[in-house]
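Chapter review: from sequence to fold.
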Amino acid sequence: MGRPKGSVGRAYGEDIAPKLLKHFKVDSFKEKDGKEVANELPHIIDFLDKEGITPEQFRYWVSNKSYATYGRLKEAWERCKLYREKMIVNNGLKGRYHPLFGMFVAKNVLGWTDKAKVEVEGNSWLGLVKRATSQKLKKPPKVIEMDAEAVTI
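The token string follows.
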């Protein structure tokens, strides 16, 4: 039980979930030479290597529908992702990461989105598009190509 077919790693045990939580629950920063420095982000591969678990096994365990068997691990993994998010946000807001790194991770790892509101005056093509899309259209919208960007009107 607890191993995908053909897997060579260790079998699932109830000790994995608490160990996983302990691995991910680390302070966001440490003091070094009188400055606050970001701690290294905990990575799942480090935990898997230490415990002798293959990535294939871990994916199987957290995606398995048997809550009775793997429920504690699933809950622990979701909590670990929140710990990681908290660490990234806290260190990013305190300037312990380069701003572009924080933005990249937030968008690509944490699933955050970036929305911008653009207001245009006059008869520019963007202003026309804005006015056209704000009205209810009777026909399906047409897509035109301009400067390698698709614009819906």
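Two observations follow directly from the output. The beta strands are 29-32, 35-38, 143-146, 149-152. The longest strand covers residues 29-32.
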